[in-house]
Amino acid sequence: MSGPMVLPGGTLGILGGGQLGRMMALAARTLGYQVQALDPDSACPSRSVVDRCLTASFTDTAAAEDLARQCDVVTLEIEKVSLSTLNAVARHAPMRPGASVLEVVQHRGRQKAWLAKGGFPLGPWREANSEAELSQAITALGGKCFIKSSEGGYDGRGQYEVKTASEAGVAWKELGERSVVVEAALDLKAELSVLVARGPDGQLAVYPPAFNHHEERILAWSLLPGPLPQAVLTQASQVARDITAGLKVEGLLVVEMFLLGDGSLLVNEVAPRPHNSFHSTEVACLTSQFEQAVRAVCNLPLGSVEVVRPAAIVNLLGDLWLQEGGPRFAQALALPGVRLHLYGKRDARKGRKMGHLSAVGSTPEDALQRVKAAATALGM
Fold it and tell me: Quick one: pLDDT band at residue 1, thresholds 50, 70, 90?
């Protein structure tokens, strides 16, 4: 049984009040929902756009139950929510996605093991729980590796790159002397991601793959639809569909993938929430990822994922605000087809995502050229 629909007029709860929660809340309000959120930050971006915002830790089960009692359904915008909190919510309202999904996703070792067991394509990897195991893993994987904390880490944090096993001690200390996943460095031709929405009744909607470019392990820009060979697009979409169905996700799941120089496609990792690489859906698609998230968790019919016009985004980091004069908003917005999306964050810090620019074009490449021109005009 998929359960009843939560119709417009109902109340949606969101665990997390960052920019993803803010944009999801705005989409929910457009659809006619009341929205409540919970976040540890009393000045979180969602606070100004929701009906009620609780300031509490993601491990605070009492606060989570308080939220859930006043909501018809609860979702999340961040993976760093304790399983006990998710289970506490589920005692009072549907929690979508639920603890069973997060139990797999929150720990990179468990996530890799689940994917491997399901036969999904992965690059060479090992798990290490001590400095000695880390050294052995680096040697076994050929020396040049990326080491990632098994839990936590976001936008490049919680990662360390090594070239030989002699760097194991430094990496182990740098990452907090705790469980890590070690991944062999790969010959990448491209990075892409696929967004899948799945309702409680099992209905699926798969967005075309996005083409992504990272700098300093943070997404710099993204194109939708990704200009990739049709065979790659077809395989990527099927892999993402199968992972989403296998995890029984209720809500959104983004599958990040690597395309190698030899043409093979590998899964990098998954995220059960809206994703930076699909912000362009707000201007490219009939249904944005944020509206789709609301539809999915409320058990409404899923919206069309058709791309009406190609689009691209460029992320805006706090570095721009720290420059003399700050962002030149008027110059950027003077360019045709360009939109500015700011997240309502008060404190600009180096590397912190403050917003993004989007642009549409006749082709993905045209959209990218426009949004890059806007970024330059802004002062990047």
Answer: very low
156 is in an annotated binding site: yes
Judge if 356 and 217 occupy the same domain.
yes
On whether the CB atoms of residues 66 and 54 are closer than 8 A, the answer is yes
Instruction: Please state the domain count of the chain.
Output: 3
User: Is residue 148 a known part of a binding site?
Assistant: yes
* Residue 154 known to bind ligand: yes
Q: Is 155 annotated as a binding residue?
A: yes
Q: Is 153 annotated as a binding residue?
A: yes
Does 157 count as an annotated binding residue? yes
Chain segment 134-179, per-residue pLDDT in tens: 999 999 999 999 999 998 766 667 889 999 999 999 999 999 988 9
Binding residue per annotation — 238? no
Kindly state whether residue 167 falls inside one of the protein's structural domains.
Answer: yes
Question: Which residues, in sequence order, are bridge partners of residue 11?
Answer: 34
Residue type, 63: A
Q: Give the three-state DSSP class for 186.
A: coil
Instruction: Indicate whether 11 pLDDT > 90.
Output: yes
